[in-house]
Amino acid sequence: DKFVDSVVEKLRYQPVSILYIILKKERALKDCWIFFPEKKYLFQRVSEQKAFSPRTCPEGMTGLMVETTKIPSKENVELMLKQLESLGILKRDEVVEYFTKTGPRVYPVYYQGFLKHLNTVLDYIDGISGLFAIGRPGRYNYNNTDHSWDMALQTYKHIVAGAGISEWGSLKKRFDGYRIVD
Asked: How do residues 80-110 score in pLDDT, each as one tens digit?
């Protein structure tokens, strides 16, 4: 449907790049993640997966995920490494390897009038039997990872139960009511 395609193009997303850094040290952070709202830093969040499970990295090593909305040019990556070092998170001689990955449509950008566009798209999808819009990109919803997992589980249960459109409406309301915890 060309009309729906044109409406989809009006929905905006913030691209995000992740600088992955492999370190030769057991742990780098005391917490699972740290937010950096200050504009002087090129990154917004640093997280360490080993904080969730020691099995995510070999013994004596850890990995950081450094989230940025900046373009991961060589200059920006170098500056981020220097900023992380100045914060005491890493030392350059601990860095074994690093690389970047960019997701072009990671965070939905809410703007005046977006709900009209979003509802047009979601109504269209709801009209296709067996197709369910879930997750952060599917519902254009800034939510936590656990919310996306819950959406997947609840949608699975909905499908297995052979539930109808009215039950799906209740689930959508549940999804839209998630409370964001950062």
From this structure: 999 999 999 999 999 999 999 999 988 899 9
* Neighbour tally for 77: CB within 10 Å: 21
Phi, psi of 57 (to 5 degrees): -145, 155
Query: What gap in Å lies between CA 57 and CA 59, rounded to an integer?
Result: 6
**3-state SS class at 37:** coil
Domain ranges across the chain: 14-108, 110-176
Task: Give ∠ CA 59-52-40 in degrees, rounded to 5.
Answer: 95
- pTM score of the predicted model: 0.81
- What is the β-pairing status of strands 45-48 and 33-35? antiparallel
Helix (H) or strand (E) holding 22: strand 12-23
Query: How is domain 14-108 classified at the CATH fold level?
Result: Polyamine Oxidase; Chain A, domain 2 (3.90.660)
DSSP 39-88: TTSS-SEEEEGGGT-GGGS-TT-EEEEEEESS---HHHHHHHHHHHHHTT
pLDDT at position 181 = 75
* pLDDT tens per residue, range 119-171: 999 999 999 988 999 998 899 988 888 899 999 999 999 999 999 888 898 89
End-to-end Cα distance, the chain = 37
For residue 122, what are the contacts with CB-CB under 8 A and spacing of at least 6? 133, 139, 172
